[in-house]
Each structure stands twice: as structure tokens, then as C-alpha cells.
Amino acid sequence: MTSATLLEAHCLCKASKCSITVSNESLPFPTHLCHCSICRHTHGTLCVFHAPIPSPAVDLTSFTAYASSKNVTRYFCSTCGTHMLDHAKGDDQWHVACSVVEGPETLWKFSDHYNVGGTKDGGLSRWLSKVDGRIMKKWTNSPVDPESEAGDWKDPTTPASSGPSEEKLHAYCHCKGVEFYIARPSGDVGGDLPPTLTSSDKTKWYASIDICASCRLAFGCAICQWAFPTISHITLADGSPYRRVFGTLKEYHSSPGVSRTFCGRCGAVCAFHADARPKMIDIAVGLLDAKSGARAEDWLEWRTHKFSFGEDIVFERLVDSLKLGLKDWACGKVGPDFNPSW
């Protein structure tokens, strides 16, 4: 008789849960990273980490269902916004966000980067080209692009950057219920930002990779990304000043002095607000639509020497591979002497 394992999954606030019974012979699950614009703008991340699973045991009454396409429905927690499940109607296939499942990292085998073509710059696939020494195949759409299985991928139609071009950076969730614009830094913004979140390039905002437990669950993604503009440089689509809740946003207070906002219609994580930092805001990078690509390098100066909240590592092998890829990328930018303080 084939032995089985019961897997439990939950959102950040634990109001939404599901369980999955799997054959041990099916483990580890092949897990892909999808970089399509739908996934980026529904989760708020550079990509999502999804694994195909048998039909889960789940009470969907605590979830909001969002039809992101004719064939796919996504389910996120109505209270905190965590994206947990996707269901493709055509083949009755379910996918789970692996980061919300309790259990060891060995449950998952990270194999492929899908839909990198829409990123323009390769997105997270540039920083995570290998896991456990295995090259992760990159797919633009179909078939595999054999020239970009390792290292960078660049859309050949995207012109090389010659410095700042856009005056404002458009940001939006997938359903466009949340939409705003970010202006470039102007004047002395350093006084409104902590030194650790202030870029050295005065034309760009700082950005970082976050692997803390609460963000991992809030985004439904194993690796998250934030950008750190000041509130004074953000305007809503109608030109009005930024405010904490607008459009289809819902707010969840995840800890004292901290609130997170997400779209109540499509579930996209939007922002992190800390009362201790009233003049700045953490914006989910997956919402950004920069001409240069998903990483928005014309707008963002990425922190490359450390991760935010590295003490919360759950996916250790994944993060170790990310460190190597990020160092390789940074060395190409700042020189071979770059030495991160992981």
C-alpha cells in the first residue's frame, strides 16, 4: 500500500486553511516559478512559487475567488489577502503556493522559470538561475529558450537603459482597482527615510528582498520584494495625494503599529505601513510597470549585500542559491570585489 502524507496550509491570519493528502511517491513536488504579468500583479511579487497538487480539502467560505482569466480562478484570504490556491477549470488542476504549506523544504523541487518573456529583464530568474546546483530552465512562453538557461535573460526588443526616462512609475494590481504613480526622488528625501532604506543613487528609490515569515505568508510567496518611496512622492490615478486605503484596498493589522493593504477584488499585496515610519511606505514591487522590466532597475537601487529579516529563513536551500545568484549579478554591476555580509 502506498503511504500518504497530510499537508496543512494556512494564510497569515490563519482564518483560511486547507489540507492536502499526497502520496509519498509524488514527493518532492515539482515546483515552478511563474513570472507572468497576471501572477506578478495578483501577488505583488516578481514571481510566484506554485506546485500542482491533488484536489485540496478546503472550506472556501473564508476565501475570495478571483477569476484572473477565463480558465483560472485564484483564491485568497478575505481577511489578510494571502493567495493560497489556484484552480484551472479545463483540466481540473489545483496549484498551491508552496510558501503557505507547513513542512520541510524537501517537499518541493524547484525546477522551472515560466513566462520570463513578459518581464523584459528576466525578473527573479536572473538571481535564481540555479537551485542545489541544478540549472533552472527558463521559458519565455514556449519552447524553452536554450540561450538563457543560466545567467541573465533580456528581451531583445527592450532598449538599453541610458538613465532615467519615465517621469512617473505606474503601479497597479491586476484588476486595476488599485492604481497609483510614484515620482522620482526630489530634494532632500533622506530625512524622511531611515539610512538603511536610502539609496546612494539620488534618482532611485531603495528596494530589498524580504524573506520574513509574515511577509512570506502575506504575499503567499517564498521570496518577497519591497520598494521604499516616501508617501509625498506618490499620487493616485486621479491625481490626489496618496492615502492608506483607497479604491478596492482592504487593510489588515498584522501586528501592533503595522498594517498591510491588499486589493479586496484580486488579492494583490499593495503596501506595508509602519506607524514608526510615517513619511515612507513599503510598496510591493510586483505592482510596478517599469519600461526597463520587472526589476525596475531604472527606478530602484536593489540592496545586494543582505536580505531583510534573514533570521526567518524557512527555504534555506532556496535562499542559499539566491545569495549566489544575487552576488553574481551584483559583481557584474559594481565589480568583482563585491563582498556581501549575509
Automatic annotation (TrEMBL):
Domain CENP-V/GFA per the UniProt entry, residue ranges: 7-109
Span list, region Disordered: 139-166
UniProt GO molecular function: carbon-sulfur lyase activity; metal ion binding
Keyword tags: Lyase, Metal-binding, Zinc
Record Gene3D superfamilies: 2.170.150.70, glutathione-dependent formaldehyde- activating enzyme (gfa) (3.90.1590.10)
Metal-binding listed as a keyword: yes
UniProt key word ATP-binding: no
Family designation: Belongs to the Gfa family.
The protein, known as: CENP-V/GFA domain-containing protein
Organism annotation: Glonium stellatum
